[in-house]
Structure formats: C-alpha cells, structure tokens
Amino acid sequence: MSERFETGMKVRRSVLGDDHVDRAEAAKSALDEPFQTLITETAWGNVWASDGISNRERSMLTLALLAALGNFEEIPMHIRATVRTGASKQDVLEAFQHVAIYAGVPRANQALKLAKQTYAEMEADQA
C-alpha cells in the first residue's frame, strides 16, 4: 500500500477507533475495495491527516456538512468519533445550529435527533 494509505489508515483508526475500522475492513469486497482505498487515501490520508486545523474542528465541520447535505447515515459514526476528536456536545450543537440557519431547520433537527440517540447509546454502553 502507498504511504498515503498507511497514513490514512492510522488517522482513520485514531478518529473512528479500531473496532469500527476492523468491522469496515472485514466487510470489504472486491467490488468496493477500490472505493475504500480511495476514501482511506484521500479523506483520511489527505484531508483528516492535514495539520491545518484540529481534529475537533474537523469533526465539527464534518458533522455540519453531513447534516447540511442530508447525509444522515454517517452522523452516528462521527458523533461516536467525537470521543477521540475532542468535539464536545456543545460543539456539536453549535455546528447543527449553523446548519439550521444556513442549510435548513429540518436537516439540523434530524441531525440533532440522531446525535441525541447516539449520545444516549454511548452513555448506555458505558453504564
């Protein structure tokens, strides 16, 4: 694998956690392997690996963009990642408030609903 892939995998694991990445890797098939490599190299090995902003800020941006574009399926994964990126619940709320103003209340409302559910699950897992 390329150096960017190796960097991407390291960053991906540090943000999403080993368990998540191991499950994703185990679910890879010949069909989606090139796509998974693309994501690992570009999203994780380039964008997330950049030292231009902190992972906390990157987490907030990612959550806001997912919500603004209606890509709700990945919001729980990125809420769980906030444990490792340092984005607080207040940070997430602030990001979704921006979404409400600039992209629409319904999208922010759905994102906040998912965040609340995910935080509740995370708290139940720790109990």
TrEMBL record:
Signal peptide: none annotated. This is 4-carboxymuconolactone decarboxylase. Residues 35-116 form the Carboxymuconolactone decarboxylase-like domain. Keywords: Lyase. Pfam families: CMD (PF02627). Its EC number is 4.1.1.44. InterPro entries: 4CMD/NDH-1_regulator, AhpD-like, CMD-like, Decarb_PcaC. GO terms for molecular function: 4-carboxymuconolactone decarboxylase activity.
